[in-house]
């Protein structure tokens, strides 16, 4: 994944333009349009989200770019299809997939979407190859992930004779041009530009002395929330819970997960301790978005566990990032914390981003018949400690 690459910090003066170009490209992909990607190695390509492709759009992509389109997919998805180039499935890797006889839109959709029936003939024609970690293929996957679409993209190298001036070439065709580096930096840049935009007192059922502070990145993207209970002190470790939003569990009371119990339980525990903060992060479904989470639920109904379902879609088991949490804690002056969590990855992430986690406090609740397998999977395969 782009946010796990080893990247240098972007100059602050570059951040607004960087975020804006990625946001505009995401909007174009979600509309089913192509965008141009320019990589540091000089490679240039038109890319389009695989799930929004059609025979006509694929034809138009090839005509505009000049190069034959192929499919960029994650190594996870290739492994699921039995097409990985190595025995080891490297987290976050991207591969290029071609079909003998040429790629067609129907085959591309089947390769990208596990909700469709894969024709055996398409698999027999498929071949994957390695691509560079910083090339347009990896950037395309990063872009569709930011867009919360299926992590597969059509890529067509730009080979047209009049494309030497790529900015002019894309402008004449009303195409968005985005730098691959801006895509790779996006999540880090968005987190580092978080600013307080509103704050209000909101008495809660189990914590009447509560304030909610909204943080918004510089590009106007999704807000994260700090639910501040009581008056946490900056000179002693504060009790903290990092909670990723869960529409189905938090709002609807879904029994498929324990998110609603964890949310309300954390508010009660923090209130009972006197003070602390619950960070409510906008990263539904372990970072894959609500639509993909619903797709994962359908795959679970077919027999997969929660982690395997994410990987069947082409995502890693957990795509969440915790830099936003660390940045918000820094803004609140809470550099020492006691963390309510069963997930050791959260402890490691906060520590890596400069937050001193003094203690991990188990945060578990009774199971029900609908979420028993989910919780067992988190323990057995996700490394959660109950």
H/E series: HEEHEHEHHEHEHEHEEEEHHEHHHHEHEH
For the biggest β-sheet, the strand order reads 5-4-3-6-2-1-7
Q: Residue share in helices?
A: 25-40%
User: Helix- and strand-based class?
Assistant: alpha/beta
Estimate the strand proportion.
15-25%
Counted by DSSP, the helix tally is 16
Average pLDDT number: 90
Keywords:
single chain, 386 residues, alpha/beta, DHBP synthase, Rossmann fold, 2 domains, seven-stranded mixed β-sheet, 14 strands, disordered N terminus
Reconstruct the topology from this structure.
Layout: H1 15-30, E1 35-38, E2 44-49, H2 55-65, E3 70-74, H3 75-80, E4 94-99, H4 105-112, H5 120-125, E5 126-130, H6 136-146, E6 152-157, H7 166-172, E7 176-179, H8 180-192, E8 195-201, E9 210-216, E10 224-229, E11 238-244, H9 247-251, H10 259-273, E12 276-281, H11 284-287, H12 290-301, H13 306-312, H14 323-332, E13 336-340, H15 344-352, E14 356-361, H16 372-380
Parallel strand pairs: 1-7, 11-12, 11-13, 13-14
Antiparallel strand pairs: 1-2, 2-6, 3-4, 3-6, 4-5, 8-9, 9-10, 10-12
């Amino acid at each position: 994944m782009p946010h796990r690459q080893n990247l240098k910090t972007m100059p602050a003066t570059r951040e607004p333009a960087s975020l804006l170009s990625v946001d505009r490209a995401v909007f174009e992909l979600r509309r089913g349009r192509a965008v141009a990607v320019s990589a540091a190695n000089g490679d240039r390509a038109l890319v389009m989200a695989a799930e929004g492709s059609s025979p006509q759009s694929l034809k138009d992509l090839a005509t505009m770019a000049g190069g034959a389109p192929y499919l960029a997919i994650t190594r996870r998805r290739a492994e699921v299809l039995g097409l990985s180039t190595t025995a080891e499935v490297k987290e976050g890797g991207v591969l290029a997939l071609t079909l003998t006889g040429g790629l067609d839109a129907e085959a591309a959709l089947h390769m990208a979407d596990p909700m469709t029936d894969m024709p055996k003939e398409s698999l027999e024609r498929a071949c994957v190859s390695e691509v560079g970690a910083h090339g347009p293929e990896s950037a395309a996957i990063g872009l569709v992930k930011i867009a919360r679409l299926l992590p597969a993209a059509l890529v067509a190298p730009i080979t047209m004779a009049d494309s030497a001036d790529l900015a002019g070439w894309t402008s004449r065709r009303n195409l968005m041009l985005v730098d691959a580096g801006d895509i790779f930096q996006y999540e880090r840049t968005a987190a580092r530009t978080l600013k307080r935009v509103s704050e209000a007192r909101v008495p809660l059922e189990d914590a009447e002395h509560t304030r909610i502070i909204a943080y918004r990145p510089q590009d106007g993207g999704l807000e994260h929330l700090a639910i501040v209970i009581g008056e946490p002190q900056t000179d002693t470790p504060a009790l903290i819970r990092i909670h990723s939003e869960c529409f189905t569990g938090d709002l609807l009371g879904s029994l498929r997960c324990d998110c609603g119990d964890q949310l309300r339980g954390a508010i009660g525990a923090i209130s009972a301790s006197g003070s602390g903060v619950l960070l409510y992060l906008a990263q539904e479904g372990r970072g894959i978005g609500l639509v993909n989470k619903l797709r994962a639920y359908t795959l679970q109904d077919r027999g997969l566990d929660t982690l395997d379902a994410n990987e069947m879609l082409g995502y890693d088991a957990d795509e969440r990032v915790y830099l936003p949490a660390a940045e918000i804690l820094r803004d609140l002056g809470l550099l020492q914390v006691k963390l309510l969590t069963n997930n050791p990855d959260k402890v490691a992430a906060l520590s890596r981003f400069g937050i001193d986690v003094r203690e991990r406090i188990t945060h578990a609740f009774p199971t029900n018949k609908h979420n028993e397998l989910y919780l067992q999977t988190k323990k057995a395969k996700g490394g959660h400690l109950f």
